Amino acid sequence: MLRRLLALLVPIAFLITASLAVPLGAVTAQRQTQEMYVDRLNDAGRFASLGSTALRTGRVEGLRGELERYEDLYGARVAVVDPSGRPVLASSPDAARAARGQEEAHRALGGFRPAPPTAVWPWSTEDLVIAEPIGRDSGVEGAVLISAPTGELRERILGSWALLGALSMVPLGVLSAVAWPLSRWVLRPVRRLDEATAAISEGDLSVRADRVGGPPELRRLAASFNAMVDAVERALHRQRAFVSDASHQLRNPLASLRLAVENLEPHVSGEEARQAHADAVEEAKAMHRLLNSLTAATRMESFRASEPVELDEVLATRLTRWRALAEVEGIGLETRVPEGLRALAPPGGLGSVLDELMSNAIRLSGGGRIRLSASAGDGEADAGADGDRGDGARGKGSVVLHVADDGTGLTPEERQKALQRFWRGPRHQNVEGTGLGLAICADLVESSGGSLRLLPGLPRPDGGFGLDVEVRLPKA
Q1: What pTM does this model have?
Q2: Distance between CA 324 and CA 18 in Å, rounded?
């Protein structure tokens, strides 16, 4: 962030300095050009005065000597032309040739002094041409042309520009030097606020933003941020305390109620009464399971951050139990998990998520086969909708797990609703469960930066597909 701010401030400082230096350089070039123009214009006026006398009297030798000495001294070529534009006197043959056809000479012979040049730029190689009429109005007898080389003038302008550029570097250097500590002072609270938000997003609500240093606006922002985190932390603590207290207060009365209902069994007679008693016992058990699920959900949400785990180690501690549970239900369990996969486990543990998914597949699928597969995001094949099609993990940097079965599955509409809390499929209303398992698993996976999706699973013998739960986790 500091480098980005400096990359923004330094060019702005350069543009501000350039916006001041460029017009000043142009003014400098114009001023020096005007100085040279005025000097040569005065010389042209003196030569015009001498030329008027020389042309009337015919004594031109003295004037020719003046023109030659002038060219030797200043390097400027001088020529005197008659009203037809023909050179009659010149400081050198080059001056006579240069005077022929000059536009400035025609304007001067018409009684007009050519407009002064705006500026001579260092990249321009043309001479500075000055024309002065001899005589005025209808009495123009000729004109004096001075063609002055501008090499020395261009060198002076370049020198002035170099000095101006060197002086411009002083404020630019000062601005650049001040921008570094100023940017650090401004961005230090922003950086610390960013670190605090990152820690809080991982679940650490004990972190607070630093309110020391920086502009007053950022200090107030840090104070408001800390107040907001305090309020959120208090609210979470109150929520968890309420759930904990409620579960503690409800557990004993609920257990007593269940025991009392079960103890009524010897005193119940009649088929309808025994059925009502069985329903009451089952409802008490369902309430007890729901209370346990709510307590577990609150406990899971209290976990703070993800942690890297070896997928092999997680499966090694659970595969035996899963196979035993599947055998009891007459279900075959197949695994396709390569070695060496590491992923960021959701808060609460990847094992808990897989336990819930395998439990759902064993209890609720109604199929005869379950496949647990995993792959890295490098195009390795994993379970697809047809059981044979390779559907490689999309994109690098992820680990994809599939718990797929060939059971009754869910319709597309049911798959969209199945991740909602307390939702249960129409075929599973009388099966033990609370409808919280998948929703809690999805929340845990998303909290670690992953995703959980429900897809068509393995093909059934009678047509159709079972259910495939895809868990995508960041690669550790």
Answers
A1: 0.47
A2: 80
Point out the least confidently predicted range of 147-151, 180-184, 357-361.
180-184
pLDDT band at 454 (very low <50, low <70, confident <90, very high): very high
Taking 50 as the threshold, does the pLDDT of residue 143 lie above it? yes
Q: Which two tokens stand for residue 304?
A: 């703070």
Distances (CA, A) of 164 to 17, 26, 159, 363, 409: 11, 11, 8, 85, 80
Asked whether the beta carbons of 472 and 344 are under 8 A apart, the reply is: no
Q: Which helix (H) or strand (E) holds 80?
A: strand 77-81
Q: Where are the extended beta strands (E) located within 332-461? A: 332-336, 342-345, 369-376, 398-405, 451-459
Report how far residue 474's alpha carbon sits from residue 342's, in angstroms, rounded to the nearest whole number: 9
Model confidence pLDDT, tens digit, residues 213-246: 777 888 888 888 888 888 888 887 887 777 777 7
Residues in the chain, overall count: 476
Q: Which of 127, 135, 89, 80 is nearest to 110 (CA)?
A: 135
User: Tokens representing 261?
Assistant: 């209902």
In this structure, are residues 373 and 381 in contact, taking their beta carbons and an 8 Å threshold? no
| Domains parsed from the chain with CATH numbers | 2-156 (3.30.450.20), 216-300 (1.10.287.130), 306-474 (3.30.565.10)
Instruction: Indicate if the pLDDT at residue 316 is higher than 80.
Output: yes
In angstroms, the CA 415 to CA 422 distance is 14
